[in-house]
Write a structure and sequence with these properties.
With 219 residues, this protein is an all-alpha fold. The chain has two domains: 1-50, Arc Repressor Mutant, subunit A, CATH 1.10.10; 59-202, Tetracycline Repressor, domain 2. Helices cover 71% and strands 0% of the residues. The protein has eleven helices and no strands. Helix 4 (52-81) runs parallel beside helix 8 and helix 5 packs across helix 10. The longest helix is centred in the N-terminal third of the chain and has 30 residues, at 52-81. The N and C termini lie far apart (94 Å).
C-alpha cells in the first residue's frame, strides 16, 4: 500500500475506534464496528495494528495523551500565566476541563476499565494515570495546606475522586451537583468548591482587597 494512503487508513481506524468508545463504551469496540466506521475491511485492522488489543492500547494511549497529558501542560501554563497563583489557575482550569470529561463518560470509563472492571493495575493506561497524578501533585503542592506529604497526597486523591464520580456517572449525583456541568458556566461553581476543598479557604489577607492605610491622627 502507498505509505500516505496507509497513514490515512491507520488514522481513520484509530478515529473510528475512539468514536465507538465515546458513543457506546469499550465493550462495544469490535473489529466489525471499527471497520465499518473507518470504511475499511476487517483485515485492515490486523494489517495495521496486529490485533484489536494492540489497537485498543494505541487508542487509550492517544486519548490519555490528548486528555490527561495535554491537561497537565495546560494547568502548568495557567499557573505560569497567573504568576504562580495555583488557586487562580485551578479556578480557570477546571471549568474548561470538566465539560468534556462529563460529555464523554464512556471514554473516562475506558481509561480506567482495567482498574475498575478487572482490578488490574499493571497496564500502561493505569501507569499513565499515575504519572498524571504525580505531575498534578507537583504542580499544586506549593499551594496545598501545610501538613505531611501523606496528608497532601490524600487531598489530591479526594479531589480527583470527586471529579471522577461525576465524570464516570454524570447523572448519579443529580440533585447534589450543579446542572450543566457540560458547559463551562455550569462547571464554575463546582470547580470553586473542589478547589476550596483541595487548597482550603483563601487566606483572608488575599481575599480582601486592600485600601489605602489611614494615618492615625497625632494625640
Amino acid at each position: 500500500m502507498d505509505s500516505e494512503q496507509g497513514r490515512g487508513a491507520r488514522e481513520r481506524i484509530i478515529e473510528a475506534a475512539i468514536e465507538v468508545v465515546e458513543r457506546e463504551g469499550i465493550e462495544a469496540l469490535t473489529v466489525r464496528a471499527i471497520a465499518l466506521g473507518a470504511g475499511v475491511n476487517v483485515a485492515a485492522i490486523n494489517y495495521y495494528f496486529g490485533s484489536k488489543e494492540k489497537l485498543v492500547e494505541e487508542v487509550l494511549a492517544r486519548t490519555l495523551e490528548n486528555g490527561l497529558g495535554e491537561q497537565l501542560r495546560e494547568l502548568d501554563a495557567l499557573v505560569e500565566a497567573e504568576g504562580g497563583d495555583v488557586r487562580a489557575a485551578l479556578e480557570r482550569f477546571l471549568p474548561a476541563f470538566l465539560p468534556d470529561a462529563v460529555r464523554y463518560p464512556r471514554l473516562s470509563a475506558a481509561h480506567l476499565h482495567d482498574a475498575i472492571a478487572r482490578q488490574d493495575y499493571t497496564g500502561p493506561a493505569v501507569q499513565r494515570y499515575r504519572d498524571f497524578l504525580e505531575g498534578f501533585f507537583r504542580s499544586v503542592r506549593p499551594a496545598l495546606p501545610a501538613g505531611s506529604e501523606e496528608e497532601q497526597r490524600l487531598r489530591v486523591a479526594a479531589f480527583w475522586s470527586a471529579i471522577h464520580m461525576v465524570c464516570l456517572a454524570p447523572r448519579l449525583c443529580e440533585g447534589f451537583v450543579p446542572r450543566g456541568l457540560h458547559e463551562p458556566s455550569g462547571a464554575a461553581s463546582f470547580a470553586r468548591l473542589l478547589v476550596r476543598q483541595l487548597l482550603g479557604d483563601r487566606p483572608e489577607a488575599q481575599s480582601r482587597p486592600r485600601g489605602p492605610r489611614r494615618r492615625r491622627a497625632p494625640a
